[in-house]
Design a protein that fits this description.
Elements: H1 16-46, H2 51-76, H3 81-104, H4 110-139, H5 144-172, H6 175-193, H7 212-224, H8 227-257, H9 262-270, H10 272-283, H11 286-290, H12 292-305, H13 317-349, H14 355-367, H15 370-383, H16 386-396, H17 399-405, E1 420-421, E2 433-434
Antiparallel strand pairs: 1-2
Helix pairs in contact: 1-2, 1-4, 1-5, 1-6, 2-4, 2-7, 2-8, 2-14, 2-15, 3-4, 3-6, 4-14, 5-9, 5-10, 5-13, 7-14, 8-14, 8-15, 8-16, 8-17, 9-13, 10-13, 12-13, 12-17, 15-16
């Protein structure tokens, strides 16, 4: 575990195909998370959307996670991941390009934004599940932790830097140009990933493959049957629900209560990027020294707890922006520490033929309630004062570390848990070593 986080692991960065995957995944994540801010920020100042409509817009973009995650997981396990990622990138570029064209023609309105957000959200589910499964097929298990550290580092940085970039694009450029800029990132990802040359064997297809419902059930049983994975799913759901509600209120609080410009919001959110890089370095050392469980719980408490400081902010931008930068720096560092640690465990204990379904099941558990959270955030912002609504939703984040602290997840030691044999279903796609004590993505935003 001690060398899992080296920035230049031997052989990995000399692998041209891995570099193409990393570059494409980074560009794709930047485009995805920039669009999550570009579309709402277009709606608020340009279309004068209120809190309820903003909550609906965010919910529409997150709804595909609830609707399609499990189905996509079963589907991805039966197709080449490179093909899935390339088609998803192409579709998202077209969707944001259509929003830009609508803006140039004077047709941009909330219905167009709703359609664009739903299309981007749906295709993002395909890409996110596929890229998690692709790493095992591309680099093999002997370099899995190193490859995962690189991908998760760039993903987390994009997840935090993307919103900052989106805020600045909307502030500095017109709405159509900002949307077109988001589409450019997906186009860059398309160009990079389609250049991967290593042959990826298509997963084995039987003459009479099992029904999709049965394959989905295998993934659900695999996750639910393990107490640690089950805790990760519950903690992820609690966090993502509260975080979705908080972010809906948060955007309104920063722009209407603190009167910050899009550029100021972008600068404040950008601090999470350097924090995430710090978290990646910590993830390479702290779990092996203090234990994975202790690190996960304490990092979640510190990362989530610091957001309780935001509702207390008052004053001019010269005071609030530096404070927000400090909060986001801490949040980014400890959030990334949790995310990388959990992802490494989950991928290590999941058999190759189950990667897509396990990733999709955890995504479904962690992100499935985010549309409801976004709607709740919009409702609270309408019924209560923004500061009160922000405090309540930020306090809800603490349920996640509480669940982890009361579970077997907190007792994970300094070494990664050993996999146990997992018996596959009749499709032959789930053979190999399965997961005993593990985790997955989704605990962090």
């Amino acid at each position: 575990m001690s060398d899992a986080g080296r920035s230049d692991p031997p052989g990995l960065w000399r692998d041209a195909d891995f570099r193409r995957l990393w570059a494409g995944q980074t560009a794709s994540q930047l485009g995805e998370h920039a669009s999550l801010v570009i579309l709402p920020l277009i709606a608020v100042p340009t279309l004068d959307a209120d809190a309820g409509r903003l909550g609906c817009l965010r919910a529409v973009g997150q709804l595909p996670i609830l609707l399609f995650s499990l189905l996509v997981g079963a589907w991805v396990d039966r197709w080449r991941t490179r093909t899935v990622m390339v088609l998803a990138d192409l579709g998202r570029a077209v969707a944001l390009g259509a929003v830009a064209v609508a803006g140039l023609l004077g047709l941009l309105g909330l219905p167009v934004l709703f359609v664009g957000a739903f299309a981007v959200g749906t295709l993002s589910v395909f890409f996110d599940v596929a890229y998690q499964a692709s790493l095992v097929r591309l680099v093999g298990r002997d370099r899995l932790v190193r490859g995962n550290s690189a991908l998760e580092g760039s993903r987390s940085a994009a997840q935090t830097g993307g919103p900052a970039l989106g805020g600045m694009l909307v502030s500095l450029l017109s709405a159509p140009v900002a949307a077109a800029s988001g589409a450019l990132f997906f186009a860059l990802s398309f160009l990079s990933i389609q250049r991967i040359r290593r042959h990826e064997p298509a997963p084995q297809h039987l003459a009479r493959p099992p029904r999709v419902r049965r394959r989905i059930g295998e993934g659900l049983r695999f996750v639910v049957g393990d107490p640690v994975l089950r805790t990760v799913g519950l903690a992820s759901a609690a966090f993502q629900f509260s975080f979705a509600a908080m972010m809906t209120v948060h955007l309104l609080f920063l722009t209407r209560e603190l009167h910050l410009s899009g550029t100021a919001v972008g600068v404040a959110l950008a601090a999470t990027g350097p924090g995430a890089l710090l978290g990646s370095l910590l993830a390479a050392r702290l779990p092996a020294r203090f234990g994975h469980g202790a690190v996960l719980v304490s990092a979640a408490v510190l990362g989530d707890g610091v957001l309780l400081c935001v509702p207390a902010l008052h004053g001019p931008a010269t005071v609030t922006v530096p404070s927000l930068i400090a909060v986001n720096l801490v949040f980014g560092a400890f959030g990334q520490l949790v995310n990388v640690t959990v992802m490494a465990v989950r991928q290590a204990v999941t058999p190759d033929g189950m990667q897509g379904r396990v990733a999709a099941t955890i995504t479904f558990a962690g992100m499935g309630l985010t549309p409801v959270g976004s709607l709740l955030g919009g409702l609270l912002a309408q019924e209560w004062a923004p500061r009160t609504a922000l405090l309540v939703t930020a306090a809800g984040l603490m349920v996640s570390p509480a669940l982890m602290a009361l579970s077997p997840l907190a007792r994970l030691g300094r070494t990664l848990p050993a996999p146990h044999t997992h018996r596959s279903g009749p499709d032959g796609g789930g053979g190999g070593d399965g997961g005993g004590d593990g985790g997955s993505v989704g605990v962090r935003p």
